[in-house]
Amino acid sequence: MKVYLTRRYLFSAAHRLHAAMLSEQSNRDTYGKCNNPHGHGHNYFLEVTLSGPIAPATGMLCDLADLDAIIRREILDRFDHQNLSLLPEFASLVPTTENLTLSIHQILSRIALPAHLESIRIEETGNNSFEYAGDLAPRR
Q1: Is the pLDDT of residue 65 over 50?
Q2: Which pLDDT belongs to residue 134?
């Protein structure tokens, strides 16, 4: 039997959407107000979905305190209250929420989690959310 657990976290970060390969005008046209040279911020809701069998001894998929500690250490401490545009993860990538979703998935795919990582979902605004389930080849 396989069950799914989705745990939700909140973090705040800023970014500027700007592609080095585009002209200044193309960046303004493509990203609009999100190309503001001073950046802009979001309160991101991160959802981490894990799956696996229920442990007979506990009746749970995993210990939530253990999962929370991992997410705090690996994700929230890295991205919360940061300017994503200035982080090494985005040195050659536009820090879109799409790329942030992929980056978080890659980070969590490389570490031992208490259950199988199914997907990452990030809600950027009430109208925009992005999800990645690892079905593409890893980025380098």
Answers
A1: yes
A2: 86
Please confirm, yes or no, whether 105 is among the known catalytic residues: no
Assess whether pLDDT exceeds 90 at residue 139. Answer: no
Q: Is 124 a catalytic residue?
A: yes
> How is domain 3-132 classified at the CATH fold level?
Tetrahydropterin Synthase; Chain A (3.30.479)
What would the mean pLDDT of 75-98 be, rounded to a whole number? 97
62 is catalytic: no
pLDDT at 136: 52
The side-by-side arrangement of strands in the sheet containing 116-123 is 82-83, 3-15, 40-52, 116-123, 129-132
In terms of C-beta distances under 8 Å and separation of at least 24 residues, what long-range contacts does 127-130 make, across chains too? 128/97, 130/97, 130/98, 130/100, 130/101
Of 74, 98, 124, 131, which one is the catalytic site residue? 124
Place of tokens 């991160």: 46
